[in-house]
């Protein structure tokens, strides 16, 4: 039996950390099931990527060429199908990148198999594969197995240790014809690190609440100052930015908005549940539907003018009762 780990290269022909994590999970699953591990790499130039994980003890397959440099459903799917067939994969494990999240459900259809996406872990129990998945906004973790094969699984990032083991990889080239593919890639625009304020790997989360856009002690709003203060902090610390629902909803209500906030930033019951070592909440009341999104943030601090706000009810480690405009200005000065 063969378990195939599939990876695609990044723009610089390396493998993303999430791919290395999925490899760790795939390798452990293969060992637990007594199965062979195969690795399939798709990309423009895959040799360096294959060598970066050459020590994993797998047989390597590759589909390489300029047509496979960028995400494109049809070519990614054709390449993945060719590799899966070349090694006779019964289980396919890959990282749930946007590229594979789009292409690999189609792989399951092509192979007449099944797919489970956004898994949080893999395990082998009595030689049987087990997939783990969060349910109900990460309040419960479920386990499931399937008898149908091939079983395609994509694993979310941050759920396994990144594989570390370079070595010379002997890659069997798999021929794939994509000359009939009509979708042409015109180019790729990558957001710069400073534009991208959601940074899942950051040490710290800064949450901005609706208070930043409310009338302040002088009776006026200062949204422009709020924007600059928040952005200065993010630029200096490379923290990830989160928001309360009230603040991201303001744009729909016609109020003055923090221009770089989107609904993707919303933390909470109907938003995200990010994982950062530390979190600092500013101008956010700390109501329960928001704070449930902090479940995996270990050290929590908040700044609020209201000493009896939600954060004060045992929801943070330290509450600074004060004006976030003033405090964050001082913090930014100290950060230089
Ligand atoms: C079903 C349901 C789901 C929900 N899901 C979510 C969710 O996923 N995420 C979420 O965030 N909310 C969610 N909410 C909404 C949530 O209950 C709150 O309404 C929301 O979090 C409030 O946002 P806020 O604290 O930013 O704004 P506000 O409640 O307006 O609080 C603003 C705070 O800013 C403080 N402040 C003002 N000026 C300053 C200053 N200069 N310095 C310091 N502090 C200042 C004020 O004292 C106040 O505490 C949900 C609600 C429901 C009913």
From TrEMBL:
Pfam families per UniProt: ETF
Indicate the transmembrane segments per the record: none
**Alphabetized UniProt keyword annotations:** Electron transport, Transport
InterPro entries listed in its UniProt record? DHS-like_NAD/FAD-binding_dom, ETF_a/b_N, Rossmann-like_a/b/a_fold
Per UniProt, residues of the Electron transfer flavoprotein alpha/beta-subunit N-terminal domain are 3-183
Does the entry feature the keyword Chloroplast, yes or no? no
* Stored Gene3D superfamilies: HUPs, TPP-binding domain
Q: What is this protein called?
A: Electron transfer flavoprotein subunit alpha
């Amino acid at each position: 039996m063969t378990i195939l780990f599939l990876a695609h290269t990044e723009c610089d022909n390396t493998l993303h950390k999430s791919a290395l994590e999925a490899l760790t999970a795939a390798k452990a699953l293969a060992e637990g099931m007594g199965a062979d591990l195969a690795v399939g790499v798709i990309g423009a130039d895959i040799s360096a990527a294959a060598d970066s994980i050459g020590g994993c003890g797998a047989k390597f397959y590759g589909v390489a060429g300029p047509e496979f440099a960028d995400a494109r459903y049809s070519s990614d799917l054709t390449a993945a199908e060719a590799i899966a067939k070349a090694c006779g994969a019964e289980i396919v494990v890959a990282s749930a990148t946007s590229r594979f999240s789009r292409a690999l459900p189609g792989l399951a259809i092509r192979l007449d198999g099944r797919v489970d996406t956004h898994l949080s872990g893999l395990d082998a129990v009595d030689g049987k594969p087990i997939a783990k998945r969060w349910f109900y906004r990460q309040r419960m973790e479920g386990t499931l197995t399937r008898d149908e094969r091939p079983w395609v699984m994509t694993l979310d990032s941050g759920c396994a240790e990144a594989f570390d083991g370079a070595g010379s990889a002997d890659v069997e080239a798999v021929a794939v014809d994509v000359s009939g593919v009509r979708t042409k890639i015109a180019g790729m625009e990558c957001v710069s690190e400073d534009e991208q304020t959601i940074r899942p790997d950051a040490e710290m989360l800064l949450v901005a609440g609706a208070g930043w856009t409310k009338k302040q002690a002088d009776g006026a709003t200062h949204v422009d100052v709020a924007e600059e203060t928040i952005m200065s902090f993010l630029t200096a610390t490379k923290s990830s930015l989160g928001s309360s629902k009230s603040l991201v909803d303001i744009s729909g209500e016609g109020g003055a908005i923090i221009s770089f906030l989107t609904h993707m930033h919303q933390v909470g019951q109907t938003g995200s549940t990010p994982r950062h070592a530390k979190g600092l909440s500013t101008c956010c009341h700390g109501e329960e539907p928001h704070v449930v999104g902090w479940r995996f943030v270990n050290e929590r601090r908040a700044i609020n003018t209201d000493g009896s706000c939600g954060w004060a009810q045992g929801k943070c480690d330290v509450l600074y009762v004060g004006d976030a405009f003033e405090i964050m200005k001082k913090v930014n000065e100290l950060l230089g």
